Structure formats: C-alpha cells, structure tokens
Amino acid sequence: MIKALEETTEFLQARGFEDPELGIILGTGLGKLVDELEIIAEVSYNHIPGFPTATVEFHKGKLIYGKLDDKKVVVMQGRFHIYEGYTLWDVTFPVRVMKRLGIKKLLVSNAAGAINPEFKKGEIMLIDDHINLQGGSPLAFRGVEHLGTRFTDMSEPYDQESGRIMQEIAKENNITLHKGVYASVVGPQLETRAEYRYLKIIGADAVGMSTVPEVIVANHLGIPVAAVSVLTDECDPDDLQPVDIYDIIQAAGKAEPQMITLFRELIKRIELKPVS
C-alpha cells in the first residue's frame, strides 16, 4: 500500500504537481470549477499509476493542478464510486495521494436528493454530519495503522470553521444554504418510497452515493474537510416522481454557479494550517 502511494505521488510530482495546499473533489455534474483555475498540469486518471478509471460518462476523469486565487490546488474532476465496482480503498486512494502531495484542507461536492421536505431542488446543503449506509469502512483493512490511527474519531467529521465561513458567504451572496445530514448509500439505483421514508426517520436530510468514504479517510489522515451537496431532486415518498439521471445532471448544472461562488470565496478566506 505504501509503495503504491509513493509511486503515484512521485509520478505526479514529476509532472508538476508541486506542494498543493488544497484538495478539491468535484461531484456529479459539478466539474466547471476547473474553468476558474490557472491550470499548470493535468493528467487523465487512466495514466496515473494506482488510480482507478472513471467509468461514469458524466465524470471527466482528470486530476488537475493549478492556482485559484493565489492558492495551489489539486482538483479531482470526477470521482470514483463503489457502484462502479471499485473497493473502498480504490475510492479513497486519491485522498491519500493528495495528503502525500501536501494538501492542508479538502473540499468536497456532490449531487444529492433532498429528503428534508423544507429543502428544494436547486438549493445547496452544507454537510454538517453524515450517515454511512455503504456497508463498509475505508479503514477496515489489515495494515491501516501504518497510514493513520485505526480508531479514528468522527465526533466532528466536518470542519466547523469552513462551514461558518461558507454560511457567511451564502448570506452575502443571497445563496440558500441549508445545513444538514448526508446519508451515503451504495447505488447506483435510486431509492424506493420505503427507503426514502426510512432515511427521513433516521435523520437524513439528503442522500447520495459518494463523499462519506473520502471524508472518513480525510479524518483518518488529519485533514480538515468541508463538503456541500447540490440538491438535484426532491424525494417525497408521498408524491414520488420518476427521476432520470440526466435530469439530475441538468439540475446540478443550474445550481453549480452558486457552489462555485461558495468554494471560490472560501478558498480566498480560509487559513491553511499544516497537517500533522
């Protein structure tokens, strides 16, 4: 494992990925933040040793290094999912590589369905906590103690300072930013009416198929992480309408400019402290 991480890190460093300060993971339909970058280097996932290949057609599959508001960032334009047939090690491998490259904070976005009836399609939710319903842990493997603390504390998985700043940014820019709990499921099928009722009962405000494994590993590595969900559909089990994945992509695209505003302004304002 360590050898694989070292090989990937050295490969990227040789291609100009030098000491990024921030890591960013862009979710489904949310790849346009890269248009704001001063790009220095980029590599397709299928050219990077140890990286899986993105198999979802609306995930670009590139790792991009550049500058955004005078901060050096490494951006995943497209992520990996369990539903593509990958392991939790595969899904979170890029986070471990970004830590070795030098990131001090991780920003994550995803597209999600709104469970909370007060949350509407096209709005954004700041993730304050999560529920892992993916049936496993990215830390459950032999030798994990060589990469970080096995029994990782998750009492506060999301960086409160970044969340507070994003709430300020949202208020300043008239962006509706809810705060809530994200439930992560395996997918790729969407949920049934009974499953939506269950998710509401257990305290979920939104549901998706990603993010939680990356957040667990970020906490394992001591990297502060902030995450937002772009709400692409309303999951009312009493009035559930069929949802096409391309409708979700379209809804994510319409809300994406607000997410970009949140991330850009956050990047300008946050103080980046060394990660131990």
Automatic annotation (TrEMBL):
User: Domain of life of the organism in this record?
Assistant: Bacteria
Q: Name one GO molecular function term.
A: purine-nucleoside phosphorylase activity
Q: What is its EC number?
A: 2.4.2.1
SUPFAM superfamilies in the record: Purine and uridine phosphorylases
Which Pfam families does the record match to this protein? PNP_UDP_1 (PF01048)
**What is this protein called in UniProt?**
Purine nucleoside phosphorylase
State the organism named in the record: Salinimicrobium catena
Q: Which GO terms describe its biological process?
A: nucleoside metabolic process
Assigned keywords, A-Z:
Glycosyltransferase, Transferase
* Gene3D superfamilies per UniProt: Nucleoside phosphorylase domain (3.40.50.1580)
